[in-house]
């Protein structure tokens, strides 16, 4: 079942466990909420017809299952925890899309764009409820407390993100804190909740948190230099939206002429030519290199936390392949 | 310390336990979220200055403490559970206010009206996170699972409420289900979570659920016949908003001429004279009497679930006074 790369079969068998569980949990909602939440997860169309698949790549819950396997546990035992993480992730996507005014996700209208803001607020709340229900009916209460802390930190990270949009300049440290809050803590929780040994939980959490940061930095790099044909977004999308993404923050923090020109450019609406120029300036001021270096550093740091643990070799290989693929990717 | 009525001192001593705990938990959020969540709870002004008090009457968490006392337990032990219930209640108020477009609550602008929709969505999420954190760090995991189910049912109740607004006619049974979901389950949880004996928990939950329904029916009666000077709302406020509140639903279900005239009237925008006429028609069609009778029945039903339990007499008296006061009130 394991291919040369090891990844597809591991992810595929994880999906075999996860997708039916996601179906079961959203069905529990009943009424229109099963449809709106199912639509968000890609389990059904806007009319409620089953798609026979799922929307995202389920990266976070796959990590939960792989971490369980790495510690020698049966991944089937942590399916509720994996489901909880995926539901919480989707809840934050649903609410963030409203706040950010984003109208499209995964090539479909976002939940609020399709069903309206009230339905989307409610669907997010319902997904949070299901996440806690899934976890609390299967895991120790300390794990549930950890998921609650995770949700609190996600809210804090999103608040920082919204605040940064109104600032001309964001500090590198502040920006990193925000990335930890928005992406790190959730992947940290995904990895931690796959592990039952209390002494190993903090190490898997640290592993996942650093990996999540690396993942977000890779995303930020794609937001500027990603191939439009692969990412599905226009080149320089994040620049056009004046986002304070990691490469921009790093570039603006540099004391070089390119940084000053970038700051002047970023203070005004950008034409297509300006976007190309801004992209070149971010690179010239060192923003791209600094972000690539930090992503690589975070990936190393992630692994340092698992270094001396006696892990299942097959699961360890899958984990390593998956971790590398989420950081070193083109979409 | 106990007055003749017994209520004020019991509620007052409950507040002494609850208010500092609410302060502590919202402070944990940090940043702007401490302010927005503190504002919602009435702990601080919009600028973050402490008000030295709290916004609502804390009815739900007071029930949690009184139920603990009734079973002979120390109320101090269930403060985190009481806080969790109050935080979850406020989370649902914050999100419902956005969905309903309500701009004022407790004589102040609602959170979204004051800070914008994104800040209000986030504050609601943060309050949910805190609620689960408070409970999961102090109670058995089964209690946390119950809180999660409560949040799921709250979302379902609010969905029904939003859907009913678009319908010309709502069935009495459907309307009751919605009231159970929106108000019953949360007071049910408030009472259940105050009790540690597993065999008594379902009985206190049933007590609180029926009481919550009675509470909502009383609210619906005030929404039509409440004294504007006392409620702070114009007379017939719910009729003017074409709400499908319990008296209206009961009146429209009757097979009498007044019901048919009411249905015709409710299909159009209402002038001041129409509001007065609608109010008279709801009463003539039996909507007021039916709702009053149902509220009384629910109050009796609530007590029937605690009937044969050996409860602390003082706490029992406080509980009875408080239960009666929330149903038989003028504001």
UniProtKB/TrEMBL annotation, chains A, B:
PROSITE patterns: POLYPRENYL_SYNTHASE_1 (PS00723), POLYPRENYL_SYNTHASE_2 (PS00444). Keywords: Magnesium, Metal-binding, Transferase. One of its GO terms (biological process) is isoprenoid biosynthetic process. It comes from the Bacteria. InterPro entries: Isoprenoid_synthase_dom_sf, Polyprenyl_synt, Polyprenyl_synt_CS. Its EC number is 2.5.1.1, 2.5.1.10, 2.5.1.29, 2.5.1.90. CDD domains: Trans_IPPS_HT (cd00685). GO terms for molecular function: (2E,6E)-farnesyl diphosphate synthase activity; all-trans-octaprenyl-diphosphate synthase activity; dimethylallyltranstransferase activity; geranylgeranyl diphosphate synthase activity; metal ion binding. Transmembrane segments: none annotated. Belongs to the FPP/GGPP synthase family. This is Octaprenyl diphosphate synthase.
């Amino acid at each position: 079942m394991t291919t040369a790369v090891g990844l597809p079969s591991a992810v595929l068998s994880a999906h075999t466990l996860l997708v039916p569980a996601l179906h079961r949990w959203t069905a529990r909602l009943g009424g229109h909420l099963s449809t709106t939440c199912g639509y968000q997860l890609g389990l059904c169309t806007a009319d409620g017809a089953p798609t026979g698949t799922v929307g995202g790549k389920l990266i976070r819950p796959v990590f939960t299952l792989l971490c369980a396997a790495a510690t020698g546990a049966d991944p089937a035992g942590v399916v509720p925890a994996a489901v909880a993480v995926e539901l919480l992730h989707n809840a934050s996507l649903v609410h963030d899309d409203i706040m950010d005014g984003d109208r499209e996700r995964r090539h479909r209208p976002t939940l609020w764009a399709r069903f309206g803001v009230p339905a989307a607020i409610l669907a997010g709340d319902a997904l949070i409820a299901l996440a806690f229900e899934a976890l609390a009916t299967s895991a120790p209460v300390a794990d549930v407390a950890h998921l609650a802390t995770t949700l609190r930190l996600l809210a804090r990270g999103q608040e920082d993100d919204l605040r940064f949009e109104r600032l001309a300049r964001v500090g590198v440290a502040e920006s990193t804190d925000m990335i930890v809050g928005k992406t790190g803590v959730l992947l940290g929780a995904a990895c931690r909740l796959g592990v039952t040994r209390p002494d190993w939980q903090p190490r898997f959490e640290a592993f996942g948190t650093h990996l999540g940061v690396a993942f977000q930095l890779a995303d930020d790099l794609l937001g500027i230099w990603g191939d439009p044909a692969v990412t599905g977004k226009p080149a320089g999308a994040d620049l056009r939206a004046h986002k304070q993404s990691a490469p921009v923050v790093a570039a603006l923090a540099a004391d070089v002429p390119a940084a000053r020109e970038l700051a002047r450019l970023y203070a005004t609406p950008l034409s297509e030519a300006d976007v190309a120029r801004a992209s070149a300036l971010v690179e010239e001021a060192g923003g791209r290199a600094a972000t690539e270096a930090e992503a690589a550093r975070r990936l190393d740091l992630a692994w340092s936390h698992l270094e001396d643990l006696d892990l299942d070799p097959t699961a360890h290989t899958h984990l390593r392949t998956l971790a590398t693929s989420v950081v070193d990717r083109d979409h």
